[in-house]
């Protein structure tokens, strides 16, 4: 008995020994180099000059916000002592100001102290005239930033802000060093190449060499606030190639530790994972692949006024038809083919965070072609000799556009088939993504002009608050000639009741009440079939079995907790 | 010969100006938006402000003139500054990339080494393999060696690098684990071990590219040798009692090399242009990868400058090929 105990103890201590050396608490720089691959290479380390995700996430290793979202989507203090709320007195009762307190003793990587002046400067930098700041929306309605002392920052808003966590929150709005960027305001921003490539930050790493669109080498920040972290001494942040090669380098050859955005066919990904060198991780944010239904007539004969509210669509204005289009789609099959573990079928345009997700529309998950046919029959749409329904001389023939992308073309082909079964003829079209998502008002092919009957793409929102996102479908957000075809209301949906909900949301502070309004907005859009959601898309990444501490986060930068990463043997 | 060269160089100036204008207008007319890759969460008015910050608000002719001054005056001045430590170009605005907001030429200079190492090396290797194959294939026409050579060339011609590249990665990186599948551009060669690493990461891209070069050059060499082997002067040489090696390597080879040297010279600009697909597959991140990412991001200053540099190189090497022709073949005289 005693011998057995001894042996067990010996075995246990042997098993534990490596843990004592490697692991999360081994001390700063103990675990050598971590290799990260982003198949789209970052071009700049300043998120204020690039809205791209790749730049945002690369920069998040170096510069940090006051607070950010954790993996559950809740706000956690980062450079601030805590997250101000009305309850703790940090947000004024009239919702027009918010007071942040910086943590004490914070240092920039060059050894100088972080003060409230740096925070104020970050706002000035992004809102300077002529700078083209990509994140200026985060600072909307900010009328002033005051710095009563070195650690206190008071942000005042011109209007009541029920959700005051835009400025200085999340990977999009980090704090930059005033001393470094002082000469880079406004039109001078692009000239500061040195600062844009090698920002001085508070994050766990600092840039040692930045090669645009190729590779970034970073070293542990000696002045990082937690003396034990980061466990890695350096980061090699390689860019370029394609998603398949990135996945292969982590899952099959083990050359890299972490690969970002592996939007690959499910069977390819699982075959790679079978090699046993790493794990695929996925989590779901707010991205939804959806079909937008056009409420306006886009016939070229209408000239200038095509695609505007002046000319209602000849047949998509019939709600029975829109409903039938939604019923005919098998969301489970599409999602399985297109995304596998990285997608779930959804019936909501607002599928997350959980408190905003409605369950009122889940009936759409079951395909019902017979039901759709019956609905169209009863609505008076009669099948002709060619199998296409018509009513009063109007044939159900549609143009269905999306961007060029293998998964989207698979979706198009299947949906065309199902719509044919309910007597709707569909012509498919795909447009190069840089044209489709470009907002050149001179091009007829942008997703905003929407010169088609239905179009499909993915959209989402930053952070966790859906107010701005749900306001996309206000009447005055419809792209039209008067707005140079800008605006977010692609379906040109217009409902006074919906606009009233948007106004109500803007003045409601209570989170439960806001959730109720958001759900109502979502249900209105869904039950009017202005938007036909298909797949709730996740973010997929892969990490090597030798890398520990990875916590996938879809609400902020994926690399948000890299200070806690360690080498697992 | 000198007058000819000078005349050609002078003609090259308007040619290049027209090429520069043509590229500029083509890029201008092409659809696309530098903000297309920015996520949809960024509102359109912000994108518009970003576009204006890039200088997109100005009319076409103003932008072309600015670019012309930058590439012809400011960038050469900067080059002089870096070499001689002068300050001629101080305060002058350089060509700025829209993606990185940094001078285009600095990135180009950063990318040239890996492109020259990998693509240049593959060209040298390809030529060195191709010449003997072409010579032997022609000398022993229809022999087994010739048949095998023809077969390999056929493969080199018809199998694209995006297939051979991935194939060798799957074999040598994934299955055997011998070679890295991702090129490390930060590797500094300073001792034997790092040299071995450099060799390991270069082997696959170099061989994939060399296959293409070998296929083309060996076919040229063979055809040119065959043309010459049946000439009268070869029979004369043999009749004089010269050994076969002298006949083939001195008489026939020299004459056959004339068109081949031209072909080789004309292929050199392509080396600087990088190998878009192969660089992408092996993550070499040279000039080719730079060009393709710039095209994807609609980074017009970058695309414009790179294509213009290629145009200069092509015009220049055409001229070199023509001059070489005159040097090698005494029958050709330009004056």
Written account of the structure:
- The complex is a heterodimer of chains A (569) and B (335).
- The model of chain A is unreliable at 10-22 (pLDDT under 50).
- Chain A contains 15 helices and 21 strands.
- Chain A is globular and about 80 Å long.
- In chain A, strands 1, 7, 8, 9, 10, 11, 12, 16, 17, 18 and 19 form an eleven-stranded mixed beta sheet that branches. Chain A has a three-stranded antiparallel beta sheet with strand order 4-6-5. Chain A has a three-stranded antiparallel beta sheet with strand order 13-14-15, with no helix packed on it.
- By secondary structure, chain A is of the alpha+beta class.
- With 335 residues, chain B is mainly α.
- The interface between A and B is large, with 65 and 54 residues.
| Averaged pLDDT of chain A | 88
Q: Are there runs of chain A of 5+ residues with pLDDT below 50, and where? A: 10-22
- What is the CATH T-level topology of the largest domain in chain B? MetI-like fold
The major beta sheet of chain B can be summarized as: none
Q: What is the makeup of the main sheet of chain A?
A: 11 strands, mixed
Structural shape of chain B: globular
Quickly name the level 1 CATH class of the largest domain in chain B: Mainly Alpha
Strand content range of chain B: under 5%
Main structural class of chain A: alpha+beta
Gross morphology of chain A is globular
Report mean pLDDT of chain B, rounded to a whole number: 86
Greatest chain-chain interface? A-B, 65 and 54 residues
**Beta-strand share of residues of chain A:** 15-25%
Distinct helical segment count of chain A:
15
N-to-C order of helices and strands of chain B: HHHHHHHHHHHH
Distance between the termini of chain A: 32 Å
Report the radius of gyration of chain A as a whole number of Å: 26 Å
């Amino acid at each position: 008995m005693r011998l057995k105990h001894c042996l067990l103890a010996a075995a246990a201590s042997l098993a534990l020994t490596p843990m004592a050396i490697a692991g999360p608490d081994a001390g700063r720089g103990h675990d050598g180099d971590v290799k990260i691959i982003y198949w789209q290479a970052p071009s700049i380390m300043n998120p204020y000059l690039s809205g791209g995700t790749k730049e945002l996430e690369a920069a998040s290793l170096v510069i940090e916000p006051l607070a950010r979202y954790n993996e559950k989507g809740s706000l956690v203090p980062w450079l601030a002592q805590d997250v101000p709320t009305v309850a703790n007195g940090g947000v004024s009762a009239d919702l027009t100001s918010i007071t942040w307190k910086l943590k004490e003793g914070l240092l920039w990587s060059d050894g100088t102290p972080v003060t409230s002046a740096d925070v104020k400067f970050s706002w000035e930098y992004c809102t300077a005239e002529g700078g083209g700041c990509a994140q200026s929306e985060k600072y909307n309605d900010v009328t002033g930033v005051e710095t009563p002392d070195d650690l206190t920052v008071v942000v005042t808003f011109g209007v009541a802000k029920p959700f005051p966590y835009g400025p200085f929150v999340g990977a999009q709005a980090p704090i930059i060093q005033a001393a470094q960027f002082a000469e880079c305001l406004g039109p001078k921003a692009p000239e500061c190449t040195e600062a844009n490539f090698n920002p001085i930050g508070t994050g766990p790493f600092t840039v040692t060499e930045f090669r645009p669109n190729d590779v970034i080498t970073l070293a542990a920040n000696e002045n990082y606030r937690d003396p034990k972290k980061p466990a890695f001494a350096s980061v090699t942040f390689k860019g370029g190639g394609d998603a398949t090669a990135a996945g292969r380098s982590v899952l099959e050859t083990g050359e890299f530790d972490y690969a970002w955005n592996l939007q690959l066919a499910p069977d390819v990904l699982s075959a790679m994972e079978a090699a046993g060198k790493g794990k695929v991780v996925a989590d779901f944010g707010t991205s939804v692949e959806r079909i937008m239904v056009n409420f306006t007539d886009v016939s070229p004969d209408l000239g200038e006024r095509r695609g505007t509210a002046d000319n209602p669509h000849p047949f998509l204005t019939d709600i029975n038809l829109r409903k039938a289009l939604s019923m005919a789609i098998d969301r489970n099959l599409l999602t399985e083919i297109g995304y596998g573990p990285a997608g779930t079928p959804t019936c909501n345009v607002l599928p997350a965070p959980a408190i905003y997700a409605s369950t009122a529309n889940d009936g759409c998950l079951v395909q019902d072609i017979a039901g759709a046919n019956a609905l169209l029959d009863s609505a008076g749409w009669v099948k002709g000799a060619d199998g296409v329904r018509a009513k009063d001389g109007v044939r159900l023939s549609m143009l269905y556009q999306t961007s060029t992308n293998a998964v989207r073309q698979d979706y198009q082909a299947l949906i065309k088939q199902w719509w044919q079964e309910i007597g709707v003829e569909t012509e498919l079209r795909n447009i190069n993504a840089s044209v489709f998502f470009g907002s050149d008002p001179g091009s007829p092919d942008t997703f905003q002009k929407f010169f088609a009957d239905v179009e499909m793409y993915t959209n989402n929102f930053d952070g966790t608050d859906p107010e701005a996102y749900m306001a996309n479908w206000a009447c005055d957000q419809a792209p039209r000639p008067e707005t140079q075809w800008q605006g977010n209301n692609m379906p040109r949906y217009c409902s006074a009741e919906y606009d009233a909900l948007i106004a109500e949301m803007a003045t409601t502070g209570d989170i439960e009440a806001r959730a109720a309004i958001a759900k109502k907005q979502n249900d209105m859009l869904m039950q009017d079939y202005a938007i036909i959601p298909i797949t709730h898309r996740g973010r997929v990444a892969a990490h090597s079995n030798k890398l520990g501490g990875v916590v996938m986060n879809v609400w902020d930068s994926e690399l948000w907790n890299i200070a806690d990463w360690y080498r697992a043997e | 010969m000198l007058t000819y060269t000078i005349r050609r160089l002078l003609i090259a100036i308007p040619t290049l100006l027209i090429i520069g204008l043509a590229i500029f207008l083509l890029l201008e007319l092409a659809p696309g938006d530098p903000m297309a890759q920015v996520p949809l969460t960024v509102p359109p008015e912000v994108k518009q402000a970003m576009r204006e910050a890039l200088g997109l608000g100005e009319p076409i002719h103003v932008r072309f003139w600015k670019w012309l001054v930058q590439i012809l005056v400011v960038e050469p001045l900067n080059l002089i500054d870096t070499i001689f430590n002068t300050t001629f170009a101080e305060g002058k605005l350089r060509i700025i990339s829209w993606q990185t907001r940094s001078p285009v030429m600095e990135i180009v200079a950063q990318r040239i080494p890996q492109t020259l190492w990998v693509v240049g090396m593959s060209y040298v290797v390809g030529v060195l393999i191709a010449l003997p194959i072409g010579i032997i294939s022609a000398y022993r026409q229809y022999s087994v060696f010739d048949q095998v050579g023809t077969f390999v060339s056929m493969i080199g011609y018809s199998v694209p690098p995006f297939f051979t590249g991935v194939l060798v990665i799957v074999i040598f990186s994934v299955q055997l684990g011998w070679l890295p599948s991702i090129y490390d551009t930060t590797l500094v060669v300073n001792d034997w071990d790092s040299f071995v690493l450099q060799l390991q990461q270069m082997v696959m891209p170099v061989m994939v590219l060399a296959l293409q070069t070998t296929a083309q050059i060996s076919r040229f060499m063979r055809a040119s040798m065959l043309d010459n082997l049946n000439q009268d002067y070869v029979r004369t040489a043999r009749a004089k009692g010269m050994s076969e090696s002298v006949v083939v390597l001195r008489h026939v080879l020299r004459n056959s090399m004339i068109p081949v040297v031209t072909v080789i010279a004309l292929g050199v600009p392509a080396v600087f242009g990088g190998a878009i697909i192969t660089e992408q597959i092996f993550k070499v991140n040279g000039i080719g990868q730079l060009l393709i990412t710039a095209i994807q991001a609609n980074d017009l200053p970058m695309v414009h400058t790179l294509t213009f540099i290629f145009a200069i190189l092509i015009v220049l090497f055409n001229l070199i090929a023509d001059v070489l022709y005159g040097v090698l073949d005494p029958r050709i005289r330009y004056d």
